[in-house]
Each structure stands twice: as C-alpha cells, then as structure tokens.
Design brief:
Layout lengths: L29 H8 L32 E5 L14 E4 L2 E4 L17 E5 L17 H9 L12 E4 L7 E4 L4 H5 L3 E4 L4 E4 H5 L22 H8 L3 H18 L5 H33 L28 H11 L3 H9 L9 H24 L7 E9 L5 E11 L2 E12 L4 H15 L6 E6 L3 H4 L5 H8 L4 E4 L1 H12 L3 H18 L2 H17 L19 H13 L1 H14 L5 H14 L2 H24 L6 H20 L1 H17 L25 H24 L1 H11 L11 H10 L10 H13 L10 H6 L9 H11 L6 H8 L1 H4 L9 H12 L7 H11 L14 H13 L1
Helix pairs in contact: 7-8, 7-31, 10-31, 10-32, 11-13, 14-23, 15-19, 15-20, 16-18, 17-20, 18-19, 20-21, 20-22, 20-23, 21-23, 21-24, 32-33
C-alpha cells in the first residue's frame, strides 16, 4: 500500500511527493512531523488538508550572511512556486537512478510594485536555478559568483545507482567539492540539487545551439560528471561565455578595468592633460602681458623643437612667447614638451590665431570680473566713468574708458576698454561710450557721474560728449577734472612776464643737457666735484636735470626742486663750457653763455624763488588729486585749504621777507653781490615797470603780489563747480549734520529723489540721523564719505536713503588721473616696434598690464575658449560644465 501527499495552496513551499510503503511509516504523527520540518511555520495558518501519509520538507542551507541578502529584484517576476519534478524511476544508458531524497526552496511572495524595490531576501533566493533564462543585473551576478560553492556545513544529497558489480546491486553517488576547484565555472543549485554552468547562465552565447543540461536544466548525473564537465568546457559557446565571465570578475575586482570606467578615466586623463597644456600656454601669455613685452618675434610659426633644415633658420628670433615655452620645457614641464614635440603643426595652439583667441578670452574674463563687481554692489549697479582720447604709436586715436564704482565702502577705478576712434567729435565719442557699456554688460541708465577734460569735443555746451550723454541719460552729472583745473590755474597764473621767462629759461636748460651725452657727463662731473668738498648731509643727490613737462604739473614741481638743488653745479658746468674749457664747439659755447647769463639775473632769481615757494602749497594737492580713491568732499577740502592759505599769504606782510631772504641766498650762489633793480624808464611794455626805491620792494610789487593775486583768482574761478557738488555731502556728514537746516535737507532730497529707496521717509530718517550723532564727540564724528560709510552707525537698514546718497557721491571722480595713467600705459604695450595689432589683442594686453591685482582664473578662461572654439583637443566635459557653457559648446560643435 502506498500513499502520496499533494501540495496544498496554503503552504508557502512546494511539497515533493515521495512513494513509500506502510511499513516505512514512523511512529510520529504525520502532521506533527511535517510541522517540525517546515521552517518558519506559522501555527495560525489554516491547516492543510492532506491524505494519510508522510512528506519530507528539507530546508536548504546558505552560506550568505543575513545582512548581504538585500538586493534589488523585479517584483514583476513571480515566485517560482512550482519547480519541475523528475520521474523518480529515471533511466539513463541502462543505469537506473532512484530518487531517494529531494527538496524544494520556499519563497516569500515579492511585493507587488512595478518599480525595482529593495526587499529582504531569503538565503535561497540567490539560487542559480531562480535566474536561469532571465535577465540578471550586475549586482546579482556578483552575488551568485561569490556564492557558487555551498558552505562547508552543507551535505550534498546522495543518489543511488544500479550497479550489478556491487554487492547490494546499488552504489551511492553525490556531488564532490573537489569538482568546484577543478572546474571553476560550475555552481551548485540547492533547489534542484544539481550543477549549472555559471558562465553559460550569466553570460549566454546565443549564437550557438546549446543543450539544456548545465544551462537551463540542472546536471545530476554524478556517475559521469567528470567526463561530461570536461567535454562541456571544450565547446565554443562555453568558451565565449567564459571570456565574458572572466572579464566580469576582473572588472569587479578592479573597477578601473571596466570599459565604461576605462573610457571615462581615459577621457578625464586626456582632458586634464589637455588643460595642463593650455595652462602652460596661458602662463606664458600672461607673463608677456603683465610685463608689457612683445609676444612675437621675426617669425612666430613652425616647429618649436628640432625644426628641419629646410623649414626654419635657427638664427631667427622667434619672440618672447616661444622663448618662454622653451624655458618652461627646460624647467621640467613634461606635458608641454610632449605636446610640442608630437602635436601636428595645425594643432599646436601657439600660433598667432590661437594667441588672439586666448587673448580674447582673457579680455572678456577681465571685463566680466569688473562688471560683476559693479553689479554686485550693495547699493545697486551704479557707476561713473572717465574718458579721454590719446594718439597711439600707429597714429590712431584711442578712447580710454575708466569706470568708477564702490567696493567695500571704497571707490574703485578700473580701465574697462580702449576704443579706436575714426572721428573724435562729441557725438561720435558719446556713441562709442554707449556701445562700449552695452558690449561689456553695463546699463548706461545706471551711470550717475562722468569726469571729462575741458576739450571742446568733451565739455562743449551743445555738441560736446558730456552734453550729448546727459541728454540721453540725465542722471549722469558732468564733473570737470580737478587736476586739469589745477594745471590751468597754475598755467594762467604764470602768465606774469617775469614768471613766464623764468620757466622758459629752465625749459631751455633742460633741453641743453638732455640731448647731449657729452654735456650730461660734464654736468655729472660738476656734481661730483661739489660733493667732494661738501659734508655728507649737504651733498647733491641729483645728477641729471629733467625736461620741463608742459602737461604733468607734478613733474614741473619736481623739475623746479631739482634745479634748486643742482643750481651751483649747473652754474659751474655752464661756466666751464662757456669760459674755462676749450674743447667745445662755438654753438655749445654760445648757448651755455646765454643760459648762464639768464639764470644769474636778479629777475630770474626773484621769479624762481617766488614760484618755488607757492608751488610748495600746490605740490601736495597735485599729488593727492592724482589718487583714485579720493572723493568729492576730500577734494573740496584740500582745494579750500590751499585757497585759504593763499588768502592768508596775501595779507601777511612778513611772508615776503622770508622769500626775499631765499632770493638773496640764491643770488650769492650765482655770484651776485645783491639783488639789483632792473633798468627803469618812463614807459615799458615788455616787462614790469612799477616804481620802487629798493630791489626788495620792486620784486614784491612786480612779481610776488601779481603772481599771488593771479593764483588766487584762478582758484576761485575754476573750483566753484567742485564746491557746488561737495556742499550736497557736507550738509549731511556726521561732523556737520547738527548745523544743517530743514531747507537745506529738502534740496538734498530733491537732488537725489529718483534714486532714493524710500523718499517718503527721508525727513524722518534725517531726524534719526541727527539724533544718532548728537550725543557723540566731535572727534568721533566722521568727516569724510568713506569714513561715514565704514562707520558701524551707518546702518543700511536704518538709514537706506542717506547711505544711498553717500554712495552716489562716491561715484564722482574728482580727477581723470586714472584714464590719464591708462593712456600713458599705451607706450609700453603698443610701441613703434609692434604698432599693428587688432583691437581685441591690444585691449587684452593693456588690461593685463594695468590690472595686475586681478588674478586670472585659467580654468574659466579655458572653458570660455573651449566653448567658443571647439577643436580636436578635448577640453570640456559636457556633463560637468555649466548650463550656459554647455549650450554654447554643443552649438559650436554642431557648427564645427
């Protein structure tokens, strides 16, 4: 009698039917024995209806740790609830196999979800039989390979085979652990109790017809296993799968060997090397630009290293740029050396075209840096500007434009561009300014101040640049350059005839020594001779007399002081040339004699000492006005201080006595016994003819008083506009706010009404402002705009209107000295030896030469270059660049 047990749908595992006889029934009740063998059996589950009989449920072992069982599985894959079973009496080549013991794995139902989810997997869910014939991700493949051999505690099931030679007519066979070492491609399935070929399952080769055993069906013929496994390892489809299998293992042990990672790493390595090459090239370009030296030489193309004999002459001067490239290679730049040695001639990135492309990116970077600083101001993107035209070495009119803005409560002035001008009319210059601002990204409507010189094309009332710009943008207030005002005041005051003749004599004296090396050496010898007899503290420190500059009045101050120090040496040199020495030509002797007579005249001495004395008051003012950080209030205070000192000098009778003593001392050095009166007549038109009894009184009436009155008049006439604008700030400075009346504050509000953030609360804000400083000492109250903005009491939240007014005032440049200095820099960049260059190249070199404090960001410059000029060289990773650069790069690549 035999009984069989059918599987119930309520049980979470599959029951393998076993045929047995009643004599084999154990004493233990079937239901209890089944519950003891079922893992994780839940007593609350409904009872399974079963026939009388017995079943076996074997729990498979697993060597995987519990924490490693989490994996991503597809919930759409249904649990393998019914595995195919074999007929127990199985015959294969006259060998009768008796199925003695079988087991099936129990599976939990997967969560129903269309997405890949993480679930806690049971150990047996990583059985190779569950994934045969299905898609497997890399993570599962790795886990299956790691667990291809059952753990050491697992006992392989035994199968009985009929063998007539055996005593009991049967023999026992099972899977051997030695096979896993001999055949590294096999794995064991506990579900099916058979072997599978791991490479053929995980990496199938579908180009060949393959048998089912070891691939889709388990191999269980333990009797012939060695022979069949050796035969399987020789098939082509298996060997192809093994190649993929080994590649997968090697890439998991060393991820850098993966194809995608290898491609990515090679791409990143190439990208880094290419960018290092461009950084070396940019370093050489920057060095030339910062130092103001030429890049190109006699030839600027061809091979850098080992040129063929028929291609280049090694004696040719290739320029500073290519020389710097060789210098970097000699100092150990291996990346650059490899590139220049092996690159193609049309992909060296050092040609004049590539230089221009790099310099264009550098120019845009510097301009963007300045524009971003303007736009990132706390009080808004407001700015002022200076402009002036200058003729370069190629006889082109260049319009220099300098912008002024506030950074960290301090004014900053920077050159933004040079623009070549075909015409220099006021309308043309105005249009050039507007185009320049728009090209660099500035809004002309945010301009609040402009500082120009007094030329007709700049300051003309109807068609000047300032008038045209002000009609388009009324908020931009025109301010006349105070340095030009000071120069004009000094020039006009020197129209006193004696003063004018004295300055002309010094000018001719500078020319006499400047353009003759022989005369210069003779003057140096005279200085050395005098220093030999003088004590160390009184020696002459100068040995050369400079030219008398007509435009740079600070240079005029310097020339006058040098002449005063070298006066004795100059007289000795002129006397030697004109009288003592005979090795000079007649023309030189005549000029020296004439100059000596002019500088030893009493009128020359009186005029020189008068000008030297009053220039002592204006020298400091001239230097201070050339600074870029001075504000309108500081400029007004300095000018007002000098003007007040001059007024006091006009009423001080003892001041002239001090100056006259210096006149007599200089006359003594000149060999005069005393100052004498010039010839007097009843009618004189070419020189002063004032009545006087003594030389002291004559020179006071003829030179000292007229020059002082002229200087005072010029200061009064030319600096009134400065006081008009500065008074707006004076009224609300902490040092003067307590003296300001209500009507004066109303005029301030009306002047800045459109720019105030909260004009409706301006009067209340002024009351709070006055109350804030009322209890402070006078010494604690700031008297400058910068000091007020930097003070902690000037809170932008509490006093937004007042802070905005001070910021607007800081935008006004007192002088145009910054653009004048920029114009002077042209002679270092655009020389007669390199006068032909494009506007972009010229601007890049000038900006680098002037803005030495702005550090170049090579990475940004290379990104700009790569996005604008796509080449063979890989310079950008499209996945890592910004969105804007990525769009430009893709667009340029499509065009390319």
């Amino acid at each position: 009698m035999s009984r069989s047990l059918s599987a119930s749908p309520d049980l979470p595992f599959e029951i393998t039917p076993v045929t047995f006889s009643e004599s084999d029934l154990p004493a233990t009740p079937p239901a209890k024995r089944a519950r003891e063998h079922i893992p994780n059996y839940d007593d609350d589950q409904p009872n399974t209806s079963m026939n009388s009989g017995i079943f076996t449920a074997t729990q498979t072992n697993s060597s995987l740790p519990a924490e490693s069982m989490n994996t991503e599985i597809n919930s759409s894959r249904q649990p393998n609830s019914s595995l195919p079973t074999e007929d127990l009496p199985h015959e294969n080549e006259n060998d009768h196999e008796e199925h003695v013991h079988g087991s099936r794995d129990q599976e939990n139902n997967a969560p129903e979800s269309s997405d890949v989810t993480n679930v806690q997997m049971e150990p047996n869910s990583l059985d190779i039989n569950s994934y045969s014939g299905s898609e497997i991700n890399d993570r599962i493949k790795e886990r299956l390979i790691q667990n291809r051999v059952p753990d050491i505690s697992y006992q392989f099931p035994i199968r009985k085979y009929i063998d007539k030679r055996a005593k009991e007519r049967t023999i026992n066979r099972s899977c051997s652990r030695d096979w896993f070492n001999k055949f590294e491609f096999i794995t064991y399935s506990k579900d099916t109790e058979g072997l599978f070929c791991l490479p053929c399952v995980l990496f199938p080769d579908t180009s060949h017809r393959r048998p089912k055993k070891l691939i889709s069906e388990p191999y269980q013929n333990w009797k012939n296993a060695l022979e069949d496994l050796k035969k399987h390892s020789t098939y082509d489809y298996h060997q192809n799968s093994v190649v993929k299998y080994k590649s997968f293992i090697s890439t998991n042990l060393d991820p850098s060997r993966r194809v995608d990672i290898s491609i990515h790493d090679n791409r990143e390595l190439t990208l880094r090397q290419n960018r290092l090459i461009l950084r070396s090239i940019l370093t050489c370009l920057e060095f030339c630009g910062r130092q103001g030296i030429a890049l190109r030489g006699h030839r600027d193309d061809g091979y850098v290293f080992n040129p063929p004999d028929d291609k280049a002459d090694i004696t040719d001067n290739e320029g500073n740029f290519r020389g710097l490239l060789r210098l970097r290679v000699d100092t150990g730049d291996n990346v650059l050396e490899t590139h220049l040695s092996k690159c193609r001639r049309n992909a060296s990135y050092i040609s004049k075209t590539s230089q221009n492309d790099f310099l264009c990116c550098i120019k845009d970077f510097l301009q963007d840096h300045i524009v971003n600083e303007i736009k990132n101001q706390v009080d808004g993107p407001y700015f002022g500007f200076q402009c002036d035209e200058v003729t370069d070495s190629s006889n082109w009119e260049q319009l220099g434009i300098v912008v002024r803005y506030v950074k960290n409560n301090k004014p900053v002035e920077r050159l933004i561009s040079f623009i070549p001008c075909e015409t220099i009319t006021g309308e043309a210059i105005c249009q050039q300014l507007i185009s320049c601002f728009q090209d660099v990204g500035l809004d002309p409507t945010m301009c609040r101040a402009m500082t120009l010189d007094g030329g007709r094309n700049m300051a003309g009332r109807q068609r000047g640049c300032a008038a045209c710009f002000n009609r388009l943008y009324p908020k931009a207030i025109h301010h006349y350059c105070s340095s030009h005002d000071l120069n004009l005041a000094l020039c006009k005051s020197c129209e006193v005839k004696e003063i004018h003749l004295m300055l002309d004599s010094i000018k001719q004296l500078g020319i006499f020594f400047k353009y003759s090396p022989k005369r210069s050496r003779r003057l140096e010898k005279a200085v050395d001779d005098i220093n030999l007899i003088r004590p160390l503290e009184n020696q002459i420190a100068k040995s050369k007399l400079g030219l008398f500059c007509e435009t740079r009045w600070i240079e005029k101050h310097t020339t006058l002081y040098d002449f005063d120090i070298m006066f004795e040496a100059i007289l000795q040199c002129l006397d030697a040339i004109a009288i003592s020495e005979s090795n000079w030509d007649a023309k030189t002797v005549g000029e020296a004699y004439g100059l000596m007579k002019r500088v030893t005249d009493s009128t020359f001495v009186a005029a020189f000492q008068t000008v030297l004395y009053f220039f002592g008051f204006t020298k400091g003012l001239s230097k201070k006005l050339q600074g870029s950080s001075i504000d309108i209030v500081q400029g007004y205070e300095m000018v007002e201080t000098v003007r007040q000192v001059l007024r006091n000098a006009r009423s001080d009778e003892t001041l002239y006595d001090t100056v006259f003593q210096k006149m007599e001392t200089m006359a003594t050095v000149a060999g005069l016994e005393s100052l004498h009166l010039p010839r007097h007549c009843s009618r004189q038109t070419q020189r002063s003819n004032v009545p006087a009894e003594t030389a002291q009184l004559f020179f006071k009436r003829a030179i000292f008083i007229p020059y002082l009155d002229s200087l005072l008049q010029q200061f009064t006439d030319r600096f009134n506009h400065l006081s008009t604008q500065a008074v707006q700030a004076f009224k609300i400075l902490p040092s003067r706010i307590l003296e300001t009346s209500g009507s004066e504050t109303s005029s301030i509000m009306n002047h800045y009404l459109e720019d105030l953030p909260s004009p409706e609360s301006f009067q209340q804000e002024l009351r709070l402002w006055r109350q804030t400083w009322e209890g402070c000492k006078l010494s604690d109250r700031p008297d400058t705009i910068q000091g007020t903005l930097a003070n902690e009491r000037t809170c932008g939240y509490m006093f937004p209107n007042i802070r905005k007014i001070f910021t607007m005032l800081l935008l006004t440049s007192v002088t145009g000295s910054s653009v004048e200095r920029a114009n002077s820099s042209l002679r270092f960049v655009k020389t007669p030896f390199r006068s032909t260059m494009g506007s972009t190249r010229f601007n890049a070199l000038v900006l680098m030469f002037i803005h030495t404090d702005i550090e170049l960001n090579y990475d940004k410059i290379i990104d700009m270059y790569a996005s604008r000029h796509p080449r063979r060289m890989l310079l950008l990773n499209p996945l890592s660049v910004s969105k804007l650069l990525k769009m430009d790069y893709i667009f340029c690549c499509c065009l390319f």
